[in-house]
Amino acid sequence: MRVLIVGAGLAGPCLAHGLLRHGHDVRLFERDRAIDARAQGYRIHINGDGDAALRTWLPAAAYDQSVATSCLATGGVSMTGPDLRDFTEIALAPDAAGITVDRLTLRRIMLRELTDSIRFGAGFRHYELLDDDTVRVHLSDGSTAEGDLLVAADGANSGIRRQLLPDFPVTVQDTLLIYGRTPLTDQVRDLTPEPALNGFLGVSGPNGRRLAPAAQRFRRSPADFALPAADDYVMWSVAAPAAAYGPGLFGLGAAQLLTKAAGTVADWHPSLSALVRLADLRYLVPASVQISERPALWPPAPVTLVGDAAHPMAPAGISAGAALHDAGLLASRLVSNAPLLDAVRSYERDMLDYGFAAVAAASRVVAGDASAESA
Fold first, then answer.
1. Which of 84, 196, 362, 369 is found 20 to 30 A from 332 (Cα to Cα)?
2. Torsions phi, psi of 124, nearest 5?
3. What is the C-alpha separation between 133 and 327, in angstroms, rounded?
4. Chain centroid offset of residue 73 CA
């Protein structure tokens, strides 16, 4: 079977590994020209289901490296107010257990064993269904590829989903976010509230403003596994209503984004704005919040969706695990020797149940003001 996967974030490479292990022909296409061409995720939590998918479908050495370089987190999730006076620990659901990782490190681990299967600088343009029930994808570098199945792993703004499901219900929320990361120096350690050093902290203030800091402390350096060295850091996100940020947020440079983020929490405990102001300018990223509603099951086709392409959700530390679970579920269906469209349809039914339960869970977290980490 020839499988074309668009998007080399986390779910795409996980699926690719699973299918390659079972002898399938897999080609992975990524629009970025290099693995680290842009900042795209920092410290992320992967729930138990996502961790199980990694453990099942990655090569054993790759999974072991993922665990070895994961975050040294001894705490859970806590909430507080802008004055940092009282901290409340949040009870987590049993399925929240898993691993917390640096997203770029995990991605590097997965992709370095896929060098023969991946093409960078090849974003999605459109696809066409062929008379022999296969699919041809047209890519941004001018090339095409044909396969038996096209898998959209290209995120919340998936071009494949827009073609497959033009009426897919997505709502862009009023809240905007600025993500960043601050090197975990001795000074920053003193500025960072203890619950954020050992776990994840949500700080909720007036007028819809929220700050979510969490330290990434590597169990072992990625350099121990011939990966680029990475220092410990505090990941953070500053959320506010769009009107508070003003127009043009996505056109701002890094220094301007940092000024906006620090200014949003300037009247809170002084350590919080100081923590933000010490951020590494290379890692400032604006983001919107997209939430989807479950669509009706679409007609069977040799095209399917995984992760945020299938079920965009609010940032609540849930989406990465859901995406990896999708990848593992689809891999298991495709290697089952069932007819292709039957296997895909079986996956889609289960994915919609699981994925939109995750969407609802993420919305409940955000509605409860439990700001959560980037997924």
1. 362
2. -80, 135
3. 23
4. 19
The answer to whether the beta carbons of residues 53 and 163 sit under 8 Å apart is no
> Is the CB of residue 160 less than 8 Å from the CB of residue 154?
yes
What's the pTM? 0.94
In this prediction, residue 373 carries a pLDDT of 41
- Measured CA to CA, the distance from residue 251 to residue 352 in angstroms comes to 34
Helices (H) and strands (E) in the chain, counts: 12, 17
Residue 38 pLDDT more than 60? Answer: yes
pLDDT surpassing 60 at residue 320: yes
CB 82 within 8 Å of CB 269: yes
CA atoms within 13 A on the CB side of 296: 4
Beta bridge partners of 214: 200, 235
**CA–CA gap between residue 247 and residue 97 (Å, rounded):** 39
Mean pLDDT computed over 131-156 = 97
Residue indicated by tokens 């290209």: 154
For residue 328, list its beta bridge partners.
none
Of 92 and 346, more confident: 346
Average pLDDT for the chain: 93
Q: Is the pLDDT of residue 275 over 90?
A: yes
Which whole number is the average pLDDT over 297-306? 97
Q: Has residue 370 got a pLDDT over 50?
A: no
Chain centroid to CA 99: 14
**pLDDT of 2 higher than 70:** yes
Which DSSP category does 71 fall into?
Answer: B
Q: How far apart are CA 183 and CA 164, in angstroms?
A: 42
Other residues' Cβ atoms within 10 Å of the Cβ of residue 171: 11
CA 222 to chain centre: 20
For range 105-132, the mean pLDDT: 96
Give CB contacts under 8 A, 24+ apart, made by 254-261: 254/281, 254/282, 254/284, 255/281, 257/178, 257/180, 257/284, 257/285, 257/286, 258/180, 258/284, 260/178, 261/178, 261/180
| Residue 119 Cα distances to 105, 114, 143, 232, 263, angstroms | 19, 10, 11, 30, 41
